[in-house]
Amino acid sequence: MDGPNPDFDRAVRAAVLTMPAARHLGFDITLLEPGLAEITQPHREELTQHDGFLQGGVLGSLADFAAGSAAATLLPVGWVTMTIDFTVKILAPARGSVVARGRVVKPGRTTTVAAADVVAVDGADEAFCATALVTLRNLKVG
Amino acid sequence: MDGPNPDFDRAVRAAVLTMPAARHLGFDITLLEPGLAEITQPHREELTQHDGFLQGGVLGSLADFAAGSAAATLLPVGWVTMTIDFTVKILAPARGSVVARGRVVKPGRTTTVAAADVVAVDGADEAFCATALVTLRNLKVG
Amino acid sequence: MDGPNPDFDRAVRAAVLTMPAARHLGFDITLLEPGLAEITQPHREELTQHDGFLQGGVLGSLADFAAGSAAATLLPVGWVTMTIDFTVKILAPARGSVVARGRVVKPGRTTTVAAADVVAVDGADEAFCATALVTLRNLKVG
Amino acid sequence: MDGPNPDFDRAVRAAVLTMPAARHLGFDITLLEPGLAEITQPHREELTQHDGFLQGGVLGSLADFAAGSAAATLLPVGWVTMTIDFTVKILAPARGSVVARGRVVKPGRTTTVAAADVVAVDGADEAFCATALVTLRNLKVG
Question: Which ipTM did the prediction report?
Answer without folding.
Answer: 0.95
